[in-house]
Amino acid sequence: MISARLRPGGTARRAAFGVRTPDLDTSTPAVVLKLDPNVMHHGGLGVIRSLGRLGVPVYGVHEGPWAPAANSVYLHGRCFWKPDPGETDQLLAGLSQLAGRIGRPAVLLPTDDAGAIFLAEHGAQLRPRFLFADPPADLPRQVAGKYSLYQLCSALGVPCPHAALPGSLAQAQAFAGDVGFPLIAKLTTPWAHARGLRSTSIISDGGQLAAAYQECAEAGVGLMLQEFIPGGSGHDWFFHGYCDASSACRPAFTGVKERSYPAHAGLTCFGRSAPSAQLRAEVTGLLARLGYRGILDLDLRLDARDGQFKLLDFNPRIGAQFRLFRDTAGLDVATAAYLDLTGQSIPAGEQVAGRSFLVENYDPLGALRYWRDGELGLGSWLASLRTVDETAWFARDDLRPFGLMCVRMGWRLATRPLASGPGQPAGTDFRYRSGRAAARPGRVAGDSQLSAITATSRRAAPQSHKEETPV
Ligand SMILES: Nc1ncnc2c1ncn2[C@@H]1O[C@H](COP(=O)(O)OP(=O)(O)OP(=O)(O)O)[C@@H](O)[C@H]1O
Ligand SMILES: [Mg+2]
């Protein structure tokens, strides 16, 4: 039995944030789908805030009530659920159940590769109840797979590092002989594996290569070896965008990964918005050729040896640091997707340059490693923190997720310092509770991001339900 608490609400207060765009209809609910078992994932919280501040009734899928993102003031409803991404029927049933609770069609935004792949391959029967992008069904899996992306790039002539799928340790050693050390080791399908194995690692010598090969062989996971592209400051780039039904990418943003965690081969923990017309043109051209539709997040490295951007990674979903980017119309990729999927036009705007984004829980850990490697001084690190425009967790109008993140991080560091242990097991248990926004109908924030957007609600709020309705 499922107990539900739903209250009416979510109707956006009419707020005059600006006059440069037409009125927005924010009455269609949105569901932020998270299948990744990492409770500290900040991308979903960003979507909740971006849409929630506009007045969209936002529903989230979370591990449990103490997940930091589950405590956002902008959540209208919360679904506590840890489905196994491989269990298609279970996922379809759970999402249908959630749709029944919401009571009307909702925009569905996956925040991880597993969710994007699932929707592309199995989402057809959810269509009447959810609005989501429809890329070619096999494309998200193809681009998210590390080796299948390499094959695709090779076929299309897109610059990328050399790569191999070694079938034996001898083949791995032969590849290392060809490209030299360091080289990069990547899990071929990182979304499909238990946590504990790192998705991307820098391999410095033969001993590390043998250990990585052995570890993957024992775990039964695919390992790809890749040529190391020399980097350094300003060489790691990323691209975030949203492609509409005709694969036109708008908005399209480019930025620089200044620091990552784990250092040199991880997620962006400090990034900067930096428009690059060349990169933008190259990526939007590729997306049109692929017929891609929906949100995407790409990692690239500028190879100083030949001046080319080498494509490293293609995530067919929103990037966790997407709130770094906004355009002069006040849009980010989540808002653009919401507007397009609800049949509204995407206002024109230019990328805002120079903004920076910090992930508070990972950047100090990443910075420590850069400092040890002699690449970052304390003064430079502190100076970079003073330039931050957007943080992953801290927000004055939504403090609880930050507080819970600090508590969880403190506990994690005290109990298993700097290690990433196995995630919680998946489960079929599905519970629904109202979110904090449900108790405050009409909450719309004065987010500076929205200074050029006028948010209004023309249609009725989502269907209200009785508190604690048993199903
Ligand atoms: N071939 C390479 N040469 C040099 N550095 C690389 C290479 N591949 C990856 N890196 C570094 O590792 C970072 C992360 O790489 P990538 O995006 O491929 O992996 P990932 O983020 O772990 O994958 P996912 O996004 O699927 O979780 C890059 O931004 C870059 O700094
Ligand atoms: Mg990546």
Task: Give descriptors for this structure.
globular, 29% helix, disordered N terminus, 12 helices, D-amino Acid Aminotransferase, Chain A, domain 1, binds adenosine-5'-triphosphate, disordered C terminus, Dna Ligase, domain 1, alpha/beta, binds magnesium ion, 471 residues, 2 domains, 6-stranded mixed beta sheet
Topology:
Elements (H helix, E strand, L loop, with lengths): L2 E2 L19 E2 L4 E4 L9 H12 L3 E5 L12 E7 L6 H15 L3 E5 L2 H10 L7 E2 L7 H6 L1 H11 L6 E2 L4 H11 L3 E5 L12 E4 L2 H14 L3 E5 L8 E8 L5 E13 L5 E7 L3 H14 L3 E10 L4 E8 L17 H9 L14 E3 L4 H10 L5 H8 L4 E2 L8 H16 L14 E5 L20 E2 L12 E2 L1
Parallel strand pairs: 2-20, 3-4, 3-6, 4-5, 6-7, 17-18
Antiparallel strand pairs: 1-21, 5-19, 8-11, 9-10, 9-11, 12-13, 12-15, 13-14, 14-17, 15-16
Helix pairs in contact: 6-7
Bound molecules: adenosine-5'-triphosphate and magnesium ion (MG).
The site of adenosine-5'-triphosphate has 21 residues, from strand 11, strand 13, strand 15 and strand 16.
Structure description:
With about 475 residues, this protein is an alpha/beta fold. The protein folds into two domains: about 10-140 and about 230-455, D-amino Acid Aminotransferase, Chain A, domain 1 (2-Layer Sandwich), CATH 3.30.470; about 160-225, Dna Ligase, domain 1, CATH 3.30.1490. Helices cover about 30% and strands about 20% of the residues. The protein has twelve helices and 21 strands. The protein has helices at about 45-55, 90-100, 115-120, 140-145, 145-155, 170-180, 205-220, 275-290, 335-340, 365-370, 380-385, 400-415; strands at about 5, 25, 30-35, 60, 75-80, 105-110, 130, 165, 185, 200-205, 225, 235-245, 250-260, 265-275, 295-305, 310-315, 355-360, 390, 430-435, 455, 470. The protein has a seven-stranded mixed β-sheet with strand order 16-15-12-13-14-17-18. Strands 7-6-3-4-5-19 form a six-stranded mixed β-sheet, with helices on both faces. The chain has a four-stranded antiparallel β-sheet with strand order 8-11-9-10, with helices on both faces. Strand 12 (about 235-245) and strand 13 form a beta hairpin. Residues about 1-20, about 420-425 and about 445-470 have low confidence and may be disordered. The structure holds adenosine-5'-triphosphate (ATP) and magnesium ion.
